[in-house]
UniProtKB/TrEMBL annotation:
Organism from which the protein derives: Streptomyces blastmyceticus
PANTHER family assigned: BLR0577 PROTEIN
Residue segments, region Disordered: 570-599
InterPro entries noted in UniProt: HpyO/CreE_NAD-binding (IPR038732), L-asp_N-monooxygenase_NS-form (IPR052189)
Residue intervals of the FAD-dependent urate hydroxylase HpyO/Asp monooxygenase CreE-like FAD/NAD(P)-binding domain: 17-196
Taxonomic superkingdom: Bacteria
Protein name: FAD/NAD(P)-binding protein
Length: 630
């Protein structure tokens, strides 16, 4: 039936498509809900969320993974909600941290939870490292609460499908093509919140995979460990492992406890591992040759370092105004080094003054005048801090095994076990609380540097090594596994090669000259680096010719609001992107409470920019009825 010619035709409802409904997409929905009352003021909006995985947790934080896999943050250090420390224009909408949510779940206040989740919530303390499955439940609840908080005119449409392609003119509506659906979604605006993605192999990985296929070996490329098929790692078999970060810890857990092994504690914190007999033997090596630094196991008491001090918005803005991109080592690292040193010594002088020789005010005034790495700074620190263990040495932290050589493999095992035990002891000792101040300095610096775009990969690796390591209990398990012979250390600067003559993989390290380990299995225990061109996501890969891709292979976006930059460097009026595949990648979609979370700032800016763009799409008459300033 056709409409009467005098019947007014309702204008189309503006639509926003978010591709990716994991933690980043969930955080964006929360910020849309917070800002919509001001910027839409009752106007209608169709909000489409596209993700084949359940919203909230997404792929990485999905529920269907082993309950043995933990977060590497304590429950009290995880939140999805902004607070008054976050530098944002939108309003704060308070919400519980993971620890606070778990307490509500334990009391039966959170409906719809299964008994297993409630049971874990009841056993949780503020300083417990929760399972990823519990975090999945928290993220699902945050998503549901965010959707419930949207104004009545904003309607959510969930699409449990994979987005395959994005097309559309720069100045017109966009089309998002979905797997298994003939017609695309039409969108006025699109936000890519894709999270960590799989990637196609690079040249070396492709060659190793081909070698494995030709010689009937097993090669596992870089990927999310929970997705890996570990059945090819046979009981008792030697397995070479490249990578000593969090992906290795997951691998270690899944092929030991995950195969029936158990631990006992002697009452002093020393664990003994009791094998099931189904474990392989993991020979692990990396550039540093040691695991990421343990999570610090005590809270900060007393005065916090006033950050930022030497690397804040003014310094970042000055770097942005310079012609050409800044050089990391020349322009950025000295500011980071000085900021971390300031955090370290502020804490040492104010919390542990008995270990210093001068007053903090005198040291601070002289410190401010010294260049990082200068002889003047070394002299100031030597004269003011008598114990070398209290002095900050970032190079030694980054390369703890530099130059060390061992006469045999067993000597290397003893040396690395001693390093891990010393790291654990220090990170559990509040007398070294300057380490925690450095951690806070790292968080501050990371948040500042996001506005500089692509600054290379080294900084992100250094940050993760010092600030995003495994829980202390995992390293205690690693020591037990090493003593039981289930894990063997290869050392620093380990090299992994394929030997066509012997038909095996080989690994060696200068830490034990002449020693070589052979195996028929090689596991890349690391996530693939984010890359537009090699992304396993078809939609993102398809944009490679339309967008600015940085030298590190990242999607270039505006630091102000996350708009995607086209090939000419112009911000796209209808496309945004957030997450690790962009050059504004934050350290995580959630963060510690009261730390001005970078992802929260980005989410708020993108949500406000998208809602402002939606407002401009409304019919003129509808815009006239919006309140002033909206």
């Amino acid at each position: 039936m056709s409409a009467h010619p005098d019947t007014p035709i309702a204008p189309p409802v503006p639509s926003l498509v978010i591709v990716g409904a994991g933690p980043r997409g969930t955080g964006l929905v929360e910020r849309i809900a917070a800002n919509a009352p001001e910027l839409l003021a009752g106007a209608r909006l169709d909000l489409h969320l596209v993700d084949p995985h359940p919203p909230g947790g997404g792929r990485v934080w999905r529920r269907d993974q082993s309950p043995l896999l933990w977060m590497n943050s304590m429950a009290e250090d995880v939140t999805m909600y902004t607070d008054d420390t976050v530098r944002q224009r939108g309003p704060v909408r308070p919400g519980p941290s993971l620890a606070e949510w778990a307490a509500l779940a334990a009391d039966g206040v959170i409906p719809g939870l299964d008994p297993e989740t409630v049971g874990e919530a009841r056993e949780l303390t503020d300083r417990t490292f929760p399972s990823r499955r519990l975090q999945s439940a928290y993220l699902g609840w945050v998503y549901g609460r965010a959707v419930a908080g949207l104004p009545a005119g904003v309607v959510v449409h969930e699409h449990r499908r994979r987005a395959l392609r994005l097309s559309g003119p720069r100045d017109g509506r966009q089309r998002v093509w979905l797997e298994g659906r003939a017609e695309p979604l039409t969108a006025d605006l699109v936000v890519l919140a894709l999270g960590h993605l799989p990637a196609a192999p690079d040249a070396e990985q492709a060659a190793l995979a081909d070698f494995a296929a030709r010689h009937e070996l097993t090669y596992l490329p870089p990927e999310f460990t929970a997705d890996s098929d570990l059945d090819g790692l046979r009981p008792g078999e030697d397995v070479l492992v490249r990578g000593f970060g969090l992906a290795f810890v997951d691998l270690m857990v899944l092929v030991t406890e995950g195969r029936g092994g158990t631990y006992t504690d002697d009452g002093t914190g020393t664990l003994t591992y009791h094998p099931s007999g189904r474990e392989p033997v993991l020979h692990v090596g990396s550039r540093r040759g040691v695991p990421y630094r343990s999570k610090i196991d005590y809270p900060l008491r007393g005065e916090q370092p006033p950050l930022p001090r030497f690397l804040g918005p003014a310094e970042v803005e000055e770097l942005r105004r310079r012609p050409g991109p800044p050089d990391f080592r020349r322009d950025i690292w000295p500011l980071v080094e000085k900021e971390l040193g300031f955090a370290h010594y502020h804490r040492l002088f104010t919390a542990h003054p008995e270990r210093t020789r001068v007053a903090w005010a005198d040291f601070e005034a002289k410190y401010a005048l010294c260049d990082p790495g200068s002889a003047e700074l070394d002299a100031l620190v030597s004269a003011s801090v008598p114990d070398p263990a209290d002095r900050l040495d970032l190079a030694a932290l980054d390369h703890p095994l530099a130059g060390l050589r061992h006469p045999c493999a067993e000597s290397l095992q003893d040396g690395i076990r001693a390093h891990i035990a010393a790291d654990l002891a220090r990170r559990e000792d509040p007398r070294h609380s300057s380490d925690l101040a450095v951690f806070l300095g790292l968080l501050s610096a990371y948040g500042q540097l996001l506005d500089l775009g692509d600054i290379g990969t080294w900084w992100h690796g250094f940050f993760n090594y010092l600030a995003s390591g495994p829980p202390g209990p995992r390293l205690r398990q690693l020591l037990a596994l090493s003593r039981a012979g289930c894990v063997r250390f290869l050392g620093a600067d380990a090299e992994f090669t394929a030997d066509p003559g012997r038909g095996t993989f080989r690994a060696h390290s200068p830490g034990v000259p002449g020693a070589v380990t052979e195996a028929r299995v090689l596991v890349e225990a690391r996530l693939p680096p984010p890359s537009v061109a090699r992304s396993g996501d078809r939609l993102l890969r398809g944009l490679a010719r339309e967008v600015t891709v940085t030298p590190a292979g990242l999607l270039a976006v505006s630091p102000d609001d996350g708009r995607i930059l086209d090939r000419d460097g112009r911000p796209h009026p209808r496309r945004f992107a957030l997450g690790p595949h962009t050059d504004a990648r934050a350290s995580g979609a959630f963060t510690r409470p009261r730390t001005n979370g970078p992802a929260f700032r980005q989410n708020d800016a993108t949500a406000r920019a998208a809602l402002a763009a939606v407002r401009e799409l409304l019919p003129h008459g509808a815009r006239e009825h919006l309140p002033a300033g909206a």
